Amino acid sequence: MSTPRPTVSVVIPTWNRQDLVRDCLASLAEQTCVPDEIVVVDDGSTDGTADIVAAEFPAVHLVALPENGGFARAVNAGLRAATGDWIFLLNNDMTLDPACIVRMLECAETTGADMIAPLVLWRDDPATIYSAGDLIAQGGRPVACGFRAPREGFTMPDEIFGVSGGAGMFRRDVFDRVGLLDESFGAYFEDADLCFRARLAGFTAALAPAAIAYHIGSASIAGKTWWRSQQCFKNHALLVIKNYPAPFLRRHGRALIAEHFHQKRQCFRALRTEFGALFASWMTITTWCRILGALPSVLAERKIIQSARTISDEELTRLLALGRDAG
Question: How does DSSP classify residue 57?
């Protein structure tokens, strides 16, 4: 008797942009392995997105939040509603090749990995890679492997550190063991934080290069690069403080501090371009104060994460080395 296929839930957070979620859901309907459940979380849209989803896609489990609370909060609402053995997190600005889900399940079966990344290409330039899995660069910054590299001739990585929350499939056990997304991150690096926690707990990740997804690229933030830079500045610090074991903080301290100040400069420059130097200075200092204000809760979380760690120093060293030349 053949083993039944594991069930798959897809969780899609969305905020406005009816066109994006329509395309995303249409691509799911064309899968050769149709997901058992699709959960769309409308994060307080003001353009009628929830009504469109309910009317045009009645089979979808719609979770309508009363107000916009940020990406991580919306994803977590979807995770709480999802029932599948595997949970596929998918941004609303993604579409999938018809064989994407079945190829990810095949990869999970052959590798035994707990987190599966598809190969993500730019939708308007499918000859160029958006992401072939995620790595952690030397300074602790999450990076997409192969970002903007030509697909032709690209050597797919034998191993990856983690998967993107924009298009990544997770065993339910991952969330049961290490928890959901950290809502204090809001957006950006929240998926890397989840994957780091999962790696520390002994879970594994793999790239499914035959599973293809297509990405528009930051469509949901509508060009607000200053906000993205501000989020990355804050969340890089939270990611490092929570997840790096003490020996690694000492070993990589110089690179981690250098990256922290690089993120600060990027934040200031993006804010200055949009609002001028005076306001940029004020907002950069305010963001730094937010990091300091978060320290008590972050350090409490760090204690829990590090006490549950099962991975050895040697294995974590090897995994972090995968991103040594990245970014």
Answer: -
What are the beta bridge partners of residue 87?
9, 170
Residue 68: inside a domain: no
Please, which residues bridge with residue 65 across strands? 43
First-to-last C-alpha distance (Å) of the chain: 48
Q: Which two tokens stand for residue 283?
A: 């907002």
Smallest CA-to-CA distance from 100 within 15, 215, 243 is with 215
Q: Which residues of the chain have pLDDT under 50?
A: none
Q: Is residue 75 part of a domain?
A: no
How many structural domains are present in the chain?
1
Which stretches of the chain are DSSP H helices?
Answer: 18-29, 49-56, 71-81, 100-111, 172-178, 190-200, 225-243, 246-251, 253-275, 277-307, 313-321
Question: The whole model's pTM is what?
Answer: 0.95
Q: Which of 12, 64, 21 is nearest to 43 (CA)?
A: 64
Residue 85 within any structural domain of the chain: no
**pLDDT value for 192:** 98
pLDDT tens track for 66-79: 999 999 999 999 99
